[in-house]
Amino acid sequence: MPVSRYERAPIFGLGYRYGTSYAIPAIRENIKNGNIKFDEITLTENTRLDILAGQVYGDGRLYWVLAAASNCGWTLQVPPGTLIRIPDLQSVLKYIG
Fold it and tell me: pTM value?
């Protein structure tokens, strides 16, 4: 029997799994509405989202939070000069968990 690729995905927050589609619009909508506070940085040469997530959140696997907040796709490497939103993780959990 086939197994979903998310079957072995780590649990995030309050029991939800990575890769769930409801989180992306929830993050974007709540940033737009001012419910999720965030900082902004401009990426420099050789900065990847997973490395940045590791520095900011302590876990590089949370790169998708940065990608969702910044609306920059799902690649780990984003061009230098890209404006990245770094949302407060506790606020994000409030709206996706």
Answer: 0.77
